[in-house]
Amino acid sequence: MIDGIQTVRDLIMPVALTVGGFLVALVIEKAIRPVLNRIAARATWEGNALLIGAFHGMAYWWFGTAGLYAALNGLPIPLRAQSLIDRGALIIYVLSVTVVLSRMLSGLVTLYGRKVGGILMSTSIFTHLTQVLVYIIGVLVLLQSLGISIAPILTALGVGGLAVALALQDTLSNLFAGIHTIASRKIRPGDYLKLDTGQEGYVADITWRYTTIRTLANNMVIIPNAKIASAVATNFSLPETEIAISVDVGVGYGSDLDQVEAVTMDVARTVMMEIEGGIPGFEPSIRYNKFDESSINFAVNLRAKEFANQYLIRHELIKRLQKRYRQEGIEIPFPIRTIRMAEKDR
């Protein structure tokens, strides 16, 4: 009986240490971290929230592992088992610190890219490369800490680099094509892109393997970076996002062209000022360009803030021109063709 009571007492402290470790982690995650998040949200630098977020969930691993490790050390366990426990704790701490550093550095790269634009921009490729690099370093540090020499591993990687490169030709081609695309600054997230193969839309992201384009129909087109690099592409967002719009119009031969020009210019100016996406300060123009079969044709030249705005501007211009022409008595003719039939000799 006394031995049984003594055994229970021996278990009280290890259990208390284990539970205590997880309770401390729970307090940090549920009470302290939300307070730090609110403080970071009021800070001017966005990186504060990023750094605090990098530690999300880590308290359970760190304090829980510490409590469990202390509890196991308080028990009479074999030396071999103790060695395994030490190694297990080391693995957990090194990997968890690697995760935190990966979150921090990749987040800072993304934050810096949004601030400065250009080569980093808001793409995922540099974020992913940063994460891969941190994890590789973390694994190497872990192996070295466990007493496993990393020199043979590095040598094997160097010797096998050529074989890996040959096996991953397509992957590496897409990786370097993505880096080249970003470095050239000719295609950026947010740009409206049209490829010679027909795909078009806003560039959503450039990752280490492919570029995603969001079409106007809100679908995602996924294109390998190597295809983007070799394609003939039109970027409607460079050198600026404003885009010229040309709308073809035709009026009857009996129309007063000076009146047509004045009325059309008045409607075009109104469209530029009132329609979303128009540029109020832009002066529209019209240019007569053709004597067609049933009409005198001309182009109305406008500008939009970006590619997608042109559709609403075209729509409103055509609708308002048709209404105004009716009011002013300006004819928009139907296609007419006169056919003369020769009489047969009788």
Please tell me about this protein's structure:
The chain is an alpha+beta fold and 346 residues long. The protein folds into three domains: 2-159, no CATH class; 173-235, SH3 type barrels, CATH 2.30.30; 243-328, Alpha-Beta Plaits. 58% of the residues lie in helices and 14% in strands. It has helices spanning 2-42, 47-53, 58-73, 79-116, 125-145, 151-167, 169-184, 225-230, 257-274, 310-328; strands at residues 192-195, 200-206, 210-214, 220-224, 233-235, 243-251, 285-291, 296-304. Strands 4-3-2-1-5 form a five-stranded antiparallel β-sheet. A three-stranded antiparallel β-sheet has the order 6-8-7, with helices on one face. Helix 2 packs antiparallel against helix 4 and helix 3 (58-73) runs antiparallel to helix 4. The chain is elongated. Residues 1-6 have low confidence and may be disordered.
Topology summary:
Elements: H1 2-42, H2 47-53, H3 58-73, H4 79-116, H5 125-145, H6 151-167, H7 169-184, E1 192-195, E2 200-206, E3 210-214, E4 220-224, H8 225-230, E5 233-235, E6 243-251, H9 257-274, E7 285-291, E8 296-304, H10 310-328
Antiparallel strand pairs: 1-2, 1-5, 2-3, 3-4, 6-8, 7-8
Helix pairs in contact: 1-2, 1-3, 2-4, 3-4, 4-5, 9-10
Summarize the structure.
The chain is built from ten helices and eight strands. It is of the alpha+beta class and 346 residues long. The strands form two sheets. The chain has a five-stranded antiparallel β-sheet.
